[in-house]
Automatic annotation (TrEMBL):
Role of this protein: Stabilizing subunit of the glycosylphosphatidylinositol-mannosyltransferase I complex which catalyzes the transfer of the first mannose, via an alpha-1,4 bond from a dolichol-phosphate-mannose (Dol-P-Man) to the glucosaminyl acyl phosphatidylinositol (GlcN-(acyl)PI) intermediate to generate alpha-D-Man-(1->4)-alpha-D-GlcN-(1->6)-(1-radyl,2-acyl-sn-glycero-3-phospho)-2-acyl-inositol and participates in the sixth step of the glycosylphosphatidylinositol-anchor biosynthesis. Probably acts by stabilizing the mannosyltransferase PIGM.
Claim: Calcium is one of the keywords in the record: no
Family recorded in the similarity comment: Belongs to the PIGX family.
Organism domain of life: Eukaryota
Keyword rRNA-binding annotated: no
Any GO CC annotation of this UniProt entry: endoplasmic reticulum membrane
Gene Ontology BP term (one): GPI anchor biosynthetic process
Topological category with respect to the lipid bilayer: Single-pass membrane protein
The protein, known as: Phosphatidylinositol-glycan biosynthesis class X protein
Length: 260
């Protein structure tokens, strides 16, 4: 009797152990698939100073470890959706001219007034379609994106020479035409967005989670410091402006009298 009881307990323990191992393995596979499909490494930086800068974004998407199909990778695309604050704008014509030199295609669904001051402008969304490259050694899809951005003039401030403008991390989505149901494989819900910069059609994109290689900077906004005028200099500027105007008028009057 005791032997039967022991054997039954051993069998039940072994059965539970097997179930536990299977569940852990299944969860591990799901986590690996979601991580491989649904995450991209992103690095952001800015070049130049003043009111005209370059926004540099490097994206690395490791989708190959999940789909395992190298034959259709030329049909893969990345899309960055940038939400530009009121203090930043892009010149669409400038970006279009840079496409033939390797720059990304950019779609703006709104008309951008490049003359507005920061406190009169509003935020706007742009869709960035970068050129991608395949790293067969690492099995990743990479994009190195440089976009010229411009900072708007801000109102004069008191006690400071600069104000800060924060640029949030972009929403990044991806898709591969040659892969059947990529969003289902990655365990995510498809995201509708324009297929390309022509905006003729909408496509299903895979929402991707941006991860910084430096975990301390993950999803942190990029902060740009903008030079501004100082309120305490108001009277000095007014005085200099009036004196310059009077000097110019006097010079014109002097020349007119000399000619006559």
């Amino acid at each position: 009797m005791f032997l039967k009881f022991c054997c039954r307990n051993v069998r039940e323990t072994n059965f539970l152990t097997i179930i536990f191992i299977v569940v852990l393995s299944f969860e591990s596979c799901i986590s690996r698939d979601k991580r491989s499909c649904g995450e991209v490494f992103v690095q952001r930086s800015q070049n130049k100073s003043g009111f005209h800068r370059d926004l540099v974004t490097n994206v690395e998407w490791d989708i190959l470890s999940s789909v395992g199909d190298h034959s259709n990778l030329l049909d893969c695309q990345l899309l960055l959706i940038e939400e530009l604050p009121s203090g930043i704008f892009i010149d669409v014509d400038q970006i279009k001219n840079a496409v033939e030199f390797g720059g990304p295609e950019v779609l703006s669904t709104e008309t951008i007034n490049v003359e507005l001051l920061a406190h009169h402008a509003s935020s706007h969304k742009i869709f960035v379609f970068p050129k991608i490259a395949f790293d067969s050694r690492l099995g990743t899809i990479n994009a190195n994106i440089t976009i010229p951005i411009h900072l708007r003039y801000h109102p004069a401030a008191e006690g400071t020479k600069f104000v800060s403008v924060s640029l949030s991390s972009p929403t990044i989505v991806g898709r591969c035409n040659g892969i059947n149901s990529p969003a289902k494989q990655c365990g995510t819900t498809p995201f509708k967005a324009p297929c390309d910069a022509t905006q003729l059609f909408s496509c299903d994109w895979i929402p991707l989670n941006s991860v910084s290689k430096d975990q301390s900077q993950s999803n942190m906004p990029l902060v740009l410091r903008v030079p501004v005028g100082q309120i305490e200099h108001t009277w000095l500027i007014i005085a200099l402006t009036v004196l310059s105007t009077m000097a110019g008028c006097g010079l014109i009057l002097w020349n007119s009298l000399a000619i006559t």
